[in-house]
């Protein structure tokens, strides 16, 4: 599911809200999650999962085309850990 499909599904379930309002709400939620991660915080959505940031150390990599060694600098990457309820729903038979 992509963002526009999510917005359409939410708008269909909530006819009292306009499509534009739902789009704005989804955008604000995602912006706040991003802002929290950028500031080094953690976002936990009970039953769904938690978003956090992990640091990756600098390392030596290889260019797959030439095989030449390439320096990969240190970086921060987003990390998602699914919640217990989400895992249970995924594995329900």
Show the helix and strand layout.
Elements: H1 3-13, H2 19-38, E1 43-45, E2 49-56, E3 59-62, E4 69-72, E5 75-82, H3 84-90
Antiparallel strand pairs: 1-2, 2-5, 3-4
Instruction: State the major sheet.
Output: 3 strands, antiparallel
Output the CATH topology of the largest domain.
HU Protein, Chain A
Number of domains: 2
Task: Please give the share of residues in helix.
Answer: 40-55%
Overall pLDDT confidence: 95
N to C succession of SSEs = HHEEEEEH
Q: Give me the side-by-side strand order of the main sheet.
A: 1-2-5
The number of distinct helices, counting runs of at least 4 residues, comes to: 3
The overall strand count is 5
Describe this structure in words.
There is one protein chain. The protein has 93 residues and is an alpha+beta fold. The protein folds into two domains: 1-39; 41-93, IHF-like DNA-binding proteins (HU Protein, Chain A, Irregular). 41% of the residues lie in helices and 29% in strands. It is built from three helices and five strands. It has helices at 3-13, 19-38, 84-90; strands spanning 43-45, 49-56, 59-62, 69-72, 75-82. The chain has a three-stranded antiparallel β-sheet with strand order 1-2-5. Strands 3-4 form a two-stranded antiparallel ribbon. Strand 3 (59-62) and strand 4 form a beta hairpin. Helix 1 (3-13) crosses helix 2. The longest helix is centred in the first third of the chain and has 20 residues, at 19-38. The two termini are 22 Å apart.
């Amino acid at each position: 599911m992509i963002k526009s499909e999510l917005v359409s599904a939410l708008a269909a379930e909530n006819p009292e809200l306009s499509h534009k309002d739902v789009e704005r709400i989804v955008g604000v939620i995602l912006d706040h999650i991003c802002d929290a991660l950028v500031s080094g915080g953690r976002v936990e959505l009970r039953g769904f999962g938690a978003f956090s940031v992990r640091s990756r150390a600098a390392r030596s990599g290889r260019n797959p085309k030439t095989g030449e060694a390439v320096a990969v600098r240190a970086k921060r990457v987003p990390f998602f850990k699914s919640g217990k309820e989400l895992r249970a729903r995924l594995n329900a038979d």
